[in-house]
Amino acid sequence: MFHRVATVLLRIIPVLIVVSVSTAVLIELVPGDPAVAVVGAEGTPEQYAAVRENLGLDRPWFARYLDWLNGLLHGDLGKTLVPPIQDVSTLIATRLPVTLEIAVLSVLLALAISIPVGTWSAYRYGRAFDRVASGLSFALISVPSFLLALILIYFAVFRPEAVKGLILAACVIATVVLAAATVGRRGAQLTAQGRRGVRLFALGVFAVGFVLAAFLPDFPRQGFARIGEDGLAENLRTIFLPVLVLGLAESAQLTRLLRSDMATTLNDDFVLASRAQGMPVRHILVKEALRPSTFSLVTVAGISFGRLLGGTVIVETIFRLPGMGTLIVESVAKKEFMVLQAAVLVVAALYVLVNALVDISYLYLDPRTRHVRV
Amino acid sequence: MRLRKPVVTASALVMLLSAAACGGSGGDEATAATGTCTTERIGGSVTQGTLLSPRGLDPVGQPGAAGSGGTEVQALFDTLITYNAETQAYEPQVAQSLDSNADHSVWTMKLRDGVTFGNGDALTADDVKRSIERHQSPSNTQVSRGEALTIASMDVVDPLTIRFTLDGPYPSFPHVLATDIGMVTNPRIVDAMGPDQFALNPRGAGVGPYELVRYTPGEEIVMAAKNDYWGGPVCIGTLRFISISGADATLDALRTGELDIALLREPPAIDEARAEGFESLPTLYNYGEGIVMNSASNRPTADVRLRKAITAAIDPEAINNRVFNGTALATSALIQEATPGLYSGEKGPAYDPDSARRLVDEVKSSGWNGSIRLLADNSPIRVNEAIAVKALLENVGITVELTNDMSLAEVLGRVASDRDYDLVIWGPNYTNEGLWALMNRQLNSQSKSNYYGYADNRMDAALADLRAADTVDKQQKIVGRMQAILNDSPVIANFAAYEEDNIHSNRVGGLLLTRGSVLRYDKAFVTGS
C-alpha cells in the first residue's frame, strides 16, 4: 500500500513541470506590455525601455522561465512587477487561504446536501421526492453560477425581510404537513413511536425556521472578512453567499451522480439479502449501500474541489473576494508573469494533490483495489 | 391523495403572501450632515470605495488621482498646500505661508511649528527638501517628476523655512505643493526601510490626520485617527478604503450602507445616485472623452485637414444620447461652460458633416485611401462610444477599422508606449486646477510625454503664456486663444466633459474636496453610528 501511495505522489512532479512550462509559453502569447503598467501612461519611451531592461522583459521567455525555476528551487518565488512591489509568496499566502476556505466549505456544503438527498432519491426512485429533487438539480445545473449569485444577492441583500418571511412560511407549511401525516388514516399506519418521532421532527423544523427567521444576519453584498482580523462570525457572514452559490451548483451534479450509483447498488444482491434479513432502512442505506456507491461521488468531488481552487473568477468578482481566481486574472491583464507562474503552479499542485488523495481514498473505500497491480 | 392539491395551493399562497408582506424597506431620508469636526463629534468609522487599488502608499510613484490612491495618501501625509475646490484658491495647509517674489520665480515657504510625523519626529525644512528630491529622482517614473523638476533648487534657510528657486516664473507654483509632491515623507523612515517596503508600510512617516493600521494590497486599507494631529481633533476614528470595480456594484454598496463614500465616473450612475438623494462632491474634467488623433508624421491624421474633418464629423449630442442617455456634459470645447473662471465663451468645433465630407474628399484626392484605424478599450462605455464614433465617421466617407477588444492596459501600451494608433477613444482630462501642468505635458511639442505627436508653435507659445499667467482673467484669455488654435489645428475631437463625483451618504459631513477629486478627511465627521 505504501508503494501505491508513493507512486501516486511521484506522478505529481512531471505534471507540475508540464504545467509550469505551458504557463510560461501562454504568458508570452498574451498581448500587452507590463512596462506600461509599471511606469504608467505618462512615461517617456526611454522610461519604458529602461523598465523593460531592468525587469528582464526584453529577454526570451525561456531565459525568464529558467531564472524563475532557479528561484523556485531556492524557495524564492520572486517579486511583483507592478507597484506596490511585494513578494509573490506573500501575495499568494494572503490570497490562497480565501480560495481554500471557500472551496472547502463549498464542497462540504455540496456533500452535506447531495449525500442525504441523493441517497433518499435513490431509495424513493421515481416517487415524488425523487422527482422534486431531480427537478431542482436540473434547474441548478442549468442556471449559470453568476446568475444564481445575482439572484441570491437580490433576495438576501436587498430583500432580507422577504427571505426571512419565506423561510418562516416554508417551515410552518412543512410543520403542518408533517403534523398532518401523524393523524387520520396516514397516522394510523405509523406506530406510536413513529408518530412521536414525526411530531418531534415537525417541532424541530418549526424551531429551526423560527430561529432562522428571527436571527438570520444581514449578508454583505461583497467583501471578505479575515478570521484573524474580524473574527470567525464575521468571516462566515461574508462568505455565506458565495459558498451557497458554489455549494448549490456543485451539489446538483453530485446529487445526480450519487442517486444513479445508489439506485444501481440498491438492486445488488447483498442489499436484497440485507432487506430479507429485516435490516432497518437506515442501516441498509448508510452502512451497506452508501460506501460502494461513493466512488464517482468522491472522484467528482475531488475534481470540483480542484476547479474551485483555480478560483471561480466570476463569483469572486461579483462578491469581490480576494482569492486566487481574481489574482490570476489580474496577473494576466498586467502580464505579471512571476505571479502567474507561481499562482498557477500552486493551484496545479493542490489540484493534483487532491486528486492523488482521491486515488488513495479508493484503497480505503474498496480494499480490493489494494491488491491491484499498478 | 385528495388533500394534496389544496395543501400545495395553500402552501404556495402562504409563501407568496409572506414574501410580499415582508418586502424590503426603502432607504431612509435623513438630511445632510452639516458643519465641521468638533470634539463632540469624535467617533465613528467610514468606508470609502475607490476605483483602483493604489500603487502602494508612498506619495512618490503615485499617479496622483483620487481614483488610484490620491485620497488615501492625502489622509496619511497631508499636503504642504491645499487646493480649496469651493473657493478655487490655494491655501496653506501643513505650511504656514508660501510667498513669492515679484515675478513668481522664487518662493519662500514657512512651516508650522510643532508639526510632527507619526513617529514623533519634528517636521523640518530639510525633511521637505529631501522629500521633494525623491520626486525629482530619475527612479520616479510618474507625472510628479516633471512637475517637481520645475523646482531648480531648494535652500533650507532655517529649520522651518525653505526657499524654492524655480526654472522660470510660475505663478501657479502652489499647485505643485498641493499635489503628491507636497506630501512630506519622513526621510529617516524611508532610508531605513527602502522604498519598496516603505510603500507597503509607511507607518510613522506622515504628518496627516491618519495613521496606517493595515494595508492589504488589492483588498483594503485601514487607518486610525491620530490624537495629536497638528490641525486639531480628527473626528472619524477609522477610515477604510476598498476598491470596487463597476458603477453598478458601487451603487449597490452605497445603497446597502457597505460604502459611505464612493467615486463614480459614469454619468448615468452619477445621475442615478443623485436622484436617490445621495450627496455629491463633483470635479469637472474638461476634454473628458473624445477621439485623440495621432498627429505624428507617418499617420493619416498628420494631415490637419483630416483632423478637422474628424472633429466636424463628431456630434457630441448624438453620442451623449446614444451612449449616456443624455446625462453627460456634451461639448466639443476645450473648456466646458460650467468650468469656474476659465470659460471664455469660445466655442469648440461645430458639428458640420457637410464640411467634413468636403475635407475628407480633399484629403482623398491628395492620395489617402480613406481608411483609418480606431482604437478603444473593451469597457462597456468605450465600446458604445466607439460604435457611435464609427457610425459618425463613416457618415462622412471615412472607412473605419475598429479595434475594441483590448483591455485598457493594452490600449495604454499601444498609445503611451508604442504610439501605434491613428485614432483612440481617450480622455486627456484637464481640470481647471493645475491646467498648465496637465496640458503642457501632453500638448507641448518638446514634451517627451506628448504621445499625441502634436506640434504647433502657437500652442507652445500659449502654454508658455499660461504658465506665466498670474490671474484667472489672464488664464481665461489664454485658454480662449488655445481654443482658437485647437479649432484650427485640432488634436482631439472632444465630445464630452465629464464629472468625477464623490457620492456619499448623508451620515458623513465635513468632507473637503481638493484637487483631482481627492477628499480631505481632517474636518470630516459622521452622524449616528
From TrEMBL, chain A:
InterPro entries attached to this UniProt entry: BPD_transp_1_N, MetI-like, MetI-like_sf
PANTHER family: DIPEPTIDE TRANSPORT SYSTEM PERMEASE PROTEIN DPPB-RELATED
Compartmental location: Cell membrane
Protein name: ABC transporter permease
Assigned protein family: Belongs to the binding-protein-dependent transport system permease family.
UniProt keyword list: Cell membrane, Membrane, Transmembrane, Transmembrane helix, Transport
Organism whose genome encodes this protein: Rhodococcus jostii
Stored SUPFAM superfamilies: MetI-like
ABC transmembrane type-1 domain location: 96-358
Topology within the bilayer: Multi-pass membrane protein
Listed transmembrane segments: 12-30, 102-123, 135-157, 163-185, 197-216, 236-254, 295-319, 339-365
Pfam family, one: BPD_transp_1_N
UniProtKB/TrEMBL annotation, chain B:
Record bears the keyword Signal: yes
Domain Solute-binding protein family: 90-445
UniProtKB keywords: Signal
Source species, domain of life: Bacteria
SUPFAM superfamilies (alphabetical): Periplasmic binding protein-like II
Signal peptide: 1-23
InterPro entries on file: Peptide/Ni-bd, SBP_5, SBP_5_dom
Signal among keywords: yes
PANTHER family with a match to the protein in the record: D,D-DIPEPTIDE-BINDING PERIPLASMIC PROTEIN DDPA-RELATED (PTHR30290:SF38), PERIPLASMIC BINDING COMPONENT OF ABC TRANSPORTER (PTHR30290)
Protein name as catalogued: ABC transporter substrate-binding protein
Organism, as annotated: Rhodococcus jostii
